[in-house]
Structures are given as structure tokens and as C-alpha cells.
Write a structure and sequence with these properties.
The structure is a single chain. It is built from eight helices and no strands. The protein is mainly α. The N and C termini lie far apart (about 55 Å).
Length: about 200
């Protein structure tokens, strides 16, 4: 039996073509490639591990159904397409709950633990975890509109045009929000260095 390792040389579009031709085992490779970014972006918006897992699963059910129905036409843009689906499902959840997606302080879950884990000493691991916790806390202090753009751009790998379309603002507004978010993070980092 073929192992998913053989799929590493293929890009997402090639994997989708293989899937559409009947090879369902490629889904494992697509999931492995993108789970971290998709799950993290969902989690940062909903702030609940179980809810994020549910929305992540719903996202991939929708992806599979769309692929099987032949309605996928995002040539070469698989991850941004999946991120849009996930973002829309988060919005749908908040609409059903009749509340806005208010992003509050992080609870310390491994949100930013997207780095490959190498052999590291206990001190290096503690320093990395503290740095991630500090960054998560700083991100949570940003205004919601800045936080949303930062999450979609950094974790979702969405273009500014895609962010603008999803949030209903102009590209310039999305760019401005990102610029303000990065500027505010730099200021917070300087204050943290001083203290």
C-alpha cells in the first residue's frame, strides 16, 4: 500500500486532481499540510478548543463535499479557499449564537506552537513557550479589527484582497489595519523589554 509520504512532492493542486480522480488517501496529506494554520486561525477567533475542533471538522466536511460535487474551482489557491470556508463557518456560529466574535485573552493553549519541535533543552522549551505566551497576550490586546487581519494574514496565509473581501473593507483599510497591528505589537514589545 502506498504511504502518504509519496505525496510530499506534489503541490496542493496536484493532490486535489488525484483526489478527484479517486485517490482519497491524498486527503491525509492535505490535512497534514494545513491543519495547524486552519485550526489555529479558528481557535484564535472562537477561544474554545472543542468548538474550534468542531468547526475545523465542519470545514473539512464542507471541503470534501465541495470537491466531490465538482464545485471546486480555486485553481492553485487551496489554503486561502479553505480559510474562507473556516472563517465563514466561524461567522455562521457567532450569528447563530447572536453574538459578535469578540476575541478575548488567550488561555495558554499551544496556539502559536506551529514551529517544528527540535531536540531542545528544558530551558529552551520554557523560553520558547514563554515567548509564545507573551506574543499571544500581546495579540489579544490589539483592537479586534487589527487582530482579525493579523490572524488571517499570518495564520491563514490569506492575501490582503481576500482579507478585504472577507471583512467587507477595502484593501487599503486591510493594509492599514495590519500596519497598525504590527506597529502596536512593536510598541508593546518595547514596553515589555523596558519592564
Amino acid at each position: 500500500m502506498d504511504t502518504p509520504m509519496k505525496f510530499q512532492q506534489y503541490n496542493d493542486q496536484d493532490l486535489i486532481k488525484l483526489y478527484l480522480s479517486g485517490d482519497e488517501s491524498v486527503l491525509e496529506e492535505l490535512l497534514k499540510r494545513h491543519k495547524s494554520k486552519i485550526y489555529t486561525s479558528i481557535y484564535l477567533l472562537v477561544k474554545d478548543q472543542y468548538l474550534a475542533e468542531d468547526i475545523f471538522q465542519d470545514t473539512f466536511i464542507k471541503v470534501i463535499n465541495t470537491l466531490r460535487s465538482g464545485r471546486y474551482n480555486e485553481e492553485g489557491k487551496f489554503l486561502p479557499w479553505v480559510m474562507r470556508i473556516a472563517h465563514n463557518l466561524v461567522i455562521d456560529f457567532f450569528r447563530k449564537e447572536k453574538r459578535a466574535p469578540i476575541i478575548t485573552s488567550a488561555d495558554g493553549t499551544d496556539v502559536l506552537n506551529l514551529l517544528q519541535v527540535f531536540e531542545e533543552s528544558a530551558e529552551e522549551r520554557m523560553l520558547r513557550e514563554q515567548t509564545h505566551a507573551d506574543l499571544r497576550a500581546m495579540i489579544q490586546q490589539l483592537p479586534d479589527d487589527q487582530k482579525e487581519v493579523l490572524i488571517m494574514r499570518h495564520y491563514g496565509d490569506l492575501s490582503f484582497k481576500e482579507i478585504a473581501d472577507l471583512t467587507g473593507v477595502s484593501i487599503n483599510t486591510a493594509l492599514g489595519r495590519m500596519r497598525y497591528a504590527l506597529s502596536n505589537l512593536r510598541k508593546m514589545m518595547k514596553v515589555k523589554e523596558v519592564s
